[in-house]
């Protein structure tokens, strides 16, 4: 090595490193394919269990001859307890849940009187994404009287997104009797035991809406048009509360059919997903972004042995070492589909570190020289795992690693006469 062209070999090593990095990037395509199969498995589980649930209601719909009139509650309260379960399809798993949802509130009697115009009954409608998740009969308590819910939302919505909507409805009296005409508000209450997948969303239809969602799932993801006003997340689960006023919605309390696009009700919903903190596929994808860093640092270590000792490393040997580094991501991906990502990472790191270190003992003609390579690989992979857990600070710690690596290289080669090493063998002999 000392008598050859070091610049030419450096370019060859850089070319090999680039090829190994490209090979690592091909794993991204495989990750996308596996992610697609995972999504298909989750969809199959949801189709068999029940889909992600969105609840819109209750709405009081008065069916007049010219146009239906929609009346929303003045006060609306949802109390939701989610009980998560993990279901599997092949090697893939997905989170589903059972839930008990208690819905209570009040309609203003004046709003109802203005909408009814002499009619004696109306439809109380609750839109639910997938009513297959309802396994028990649901009973409505309306103004202290009981009424049975029936399947379907009770009306046909004009919006394309809601024309095939599922849900529940009940016919309730709206023409006040003498003993109830003095009431300012009409209370209601019902409970639903509802199954679903991944998460639940609730539309804030009340003039004042409060809904609570709690679960034993430790890693929720709050989604939708509103974030919770209060929340508490621990290792044993979470509790959350939303308080939303009608000022945060784009629709009024009472309107005639056609004056409000009902998809606005869906767009205003908020809730929670039972989310895994970081998906294994996301972690593997993020780890591949550091592949070039691992290749450069490992190749640099071998190159320093090449320059500073009598050991000679052939470009083919660089290629084999780089192939081992690229293989790490394939091992990590395949193992993480069967065991936890942490265990998969430990096993893949051990396999690659032992493989490359054992090979280094022959390449560098010394077990003592292979030990620093072993330590370097464990340090790098340990540091990478640490960085993967720090989503917000990953770039910072990656930059710090590069700085430390550059400083070490500069210190180790500070006395190397690169001009002498770069001369061809015949010139140095002369």
What does this protein look like?
The protein has 430 residues and is of the alpha+beta class. The protein folds into two domains: 6-35 and 281-429, no CATH class; 52-277. The protein has eleven helices and 17 strands. Strands 1, 2, 5, 8, 9, 11, 13, 16 and 17 form a nine-stranded mixed β-sheet that branches. It has an eight-stranded mixed β-sheet with strand order 7-6-10-4-3-12-15-14. Mean pLDDT is 84; it is low at 425-430.
Task: Tell me briefly what this model is.
The strands form 2 sheets. Strands 1, 2, 5, 8, 9, 11, 13, 16 and 17 form a 9-stranded mixed sheet that branches. Strands 7-6-10-4-3-12-15-14 form an 8-stranded mixed sheet.
* Count of beta strands: 17
| Distance from first to last alpha carbon | 18 Å
Largest sheet: 9 strands, mixed
> What's the alpha carbon Rg, rounded to whole Å?
32 Å
What order do the SSEs take from the amino end to the carboxyl end, as H and E?
Answer: HEEEEHEEEEEEEEEEEEHEHHHHHHHH
Q: What is the average per-residue confidence, as pLDDT, rounded to a whole number?
A: 84
Q: What level of helicity do the residues show?
A: 40-55%
Give the CA-based shape: elongated
Keywords, please?
single chain; alpha+beta; 9-stranded mixed β-sheet; 430 residues; 2 domains; 41% helix
Furnish the topology, listing elements before pairings.
Elements: H1 6-48, E1 53-62, E2 69-71, E3 75-89, E4 92-108, H2 109-116, E5 121-128, E6 139-142, E7 145-148, E8 150-151, E9 167-173, E10 185-197, E11 199-202, E12 208-215, E13 220-224, E14 230-234, E15 237-245, E16 254-256, H3 263-267, E17 270-274, H4 280-288, H5 291-308, H6 315-336, H7 341-363, H8 367-388, H9 394-412, H10 418-421, H11 425-429
Parallel strand pairs: 1-11, 3-12
Antiparallel strand pairs: 1-2, 1-5, 2-16, 3-4, 4-10, 5-9, 6-7, 6-10, 8-9, 11-17, 12-15, 13-17, 14-15
Helix pairs in contact: 1-4, 1-5, 1-6, 4-6, 5-6, 5-8, 5-9, 6-7, 7-8
